[in-house]
């Protein structure tokens, strides 16, 4: 019940295209859903996050869509650039815990020039 | 911009040896975490620390692991007797009190 399932495992898009990564969760106590970007050899960097009281959040080229009833959320990267090539992790946490993050399995995104 | 720092960046040790991984969280943060990432896998929670005590730990965090905040700035993870399967990236993270959790650059632990 603590799992966060992420797909696809890898994604290849052309420069300028839209990258979409999906996550699903079971634990209804989760109330904060961040996305992290990780480059090889580096720590995860917080990209964007959403709470379940909104259905969408946009920051620049990055948008989170959230479907509370389906217990799913997704990351959309508009106008994808080669510099976006990285591994993306969705995560979730609940206010009833010590705020530790449960991570998805990661998506390796490659944006072709 | 404040950031979480970790030392060393890479630690090589022999099986059975003790290692201490060090972290300096962001100065006004109150909650501290250790996570582990085995090569090519997802990030896994190990332990959280608040108010000078462990607030939660995962099943990975067994008796071989311990954490300490020896002074006002450092936060350490000790592995008493390392095993081959402890080889991983270890990330420290901290949070001010709400949700935005910031990660350090990690320590790559290699157990031979």
Q: Please name the two chains that share the biggest interface, counting residues whose Cβ lies under 8 Å from a Cβ on the partner chain.
A: A-B, 23 and 25 residues
The helix/strand series of chain B, from N terminus to C terminus, equals EEEEEEEEEEE
The proportion of strand residues of chain B reads over 45%
Q: Which radius of gyration of chain A do the C-alpha atoms yield?
A: 13 Å
DSSP strand tally of chain B = 11
Spans of at least 5 consecutive residues with low confidence of chain B: none
Give the biggest beta sheet of chain A.
Answer: 6 strands, mixed
Low-pLDDT stretches of chain A? none
What is the fold's blueprint, element by element?
The complex is a heterodimer of chains A (113) and B (112).
Chain A: E1 4-7, E2 10-14, E3 19-25, E4 33-38, E5 45-50, E6 56-59, E7 62-67, E8 72-77, E9 86-92, E10 102-103, E11 107-112
Parallel strand pairs in A: 2-11
Antiparallel strand pairs in A: 1-3, 3-8, 4-5, 4-9, 6-7, 7-8, 9-10, 9-11
Chain B: E1 5-7, E2 10-13, E3 19-24, E4 31-37, E5 43-50, E6 53-57, E7 65-68, E8 75-79, E9 88-95, E10 102-103, E11 107-111
Parallel strand pairs in B: 2-11
Antiparallel strand pairs in B: 1-3, 3-8, 4-5, 4-9, 5-6, 7-8, 9-10, 9-11
Describe the structure.
The complex is a heterodimer of chains A (113) and B (112). Chain A has 113 residues and is mainly β. Chain A contains no helices and eleven strands. In chain A, the strands form two sheets. In chain A, strands 2, 4, 5, 9, 10 and 11 form a six-stranded mixed β-sheet that branches. In chain A, strands 1-3-8-7-6 form a five-stranded antiparallel β-sheet, with no helix packed on it. The termini of chain A are far apart. With 112 residues, chain B is mainly beta. Helices cover 0% and strands 51% of the residues of chain B. Chain B has strands spanning 5-7, 10-13, 19-24, 31-37, 43-50, 53-57, 65-68, 75-79, 88-95, 102-103, 107-111. The mean pLDDT of chain B is 93. Chain A binds chain B through residues 32, 34, 36, 41-46, 49, 89, 91, 93, 97-106, and chain B through 4, 31, 33, 35, 41-45, 48, 50, 55-56, 58, 91, 93, 95, 99-106.
């Amino acid at each position: 019940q603590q799992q966060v399932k992420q797909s696809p495992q890898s994604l290849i898009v052309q420069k300028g295209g839209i990258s979409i990564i999906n996550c699903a969760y079971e634990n209804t106590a989760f109330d904060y859903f961040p996305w992290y970007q990780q480059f090889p050899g580096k720590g995860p960097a917080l990209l964007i996050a959403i709470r379940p009281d909104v259905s969408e959040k946009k920051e620049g080229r990055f948008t989170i869509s959230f479907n509370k009833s389906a217990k799913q959320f997704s990351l959309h990267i508009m106008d994808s650039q080669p510099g976006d090539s990285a591994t993306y992790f969705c995560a979730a946490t609940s206010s009833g815990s010590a705020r530790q993050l449960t991570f998805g399995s990661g998506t390796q995104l490659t944006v072709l020039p | 911009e404040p950031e979480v720092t970790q030392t060393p960046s890479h630690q090589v040790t022999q099986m059975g040896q003790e290692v201490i991984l060090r972290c300096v969280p962001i100065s006004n943060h109150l909650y501290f975490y250790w996570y582990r990432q085995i090569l090519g896998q997802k990030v896994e929670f190990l332990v959280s620390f608040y108010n000078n005590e462990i607030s939660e730990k995962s099943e990975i965090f067994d008796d071989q692991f311990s954490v300490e905040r020896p002074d006002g700035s450092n936060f350490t993870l000790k592995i008493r007797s390392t095993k081959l399967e402890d080889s991983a990236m270890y990330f420290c993270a901290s949070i001010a009190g709400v949700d935005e959790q910031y990660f350090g650059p990690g320590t790559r632990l290699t157990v031979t």
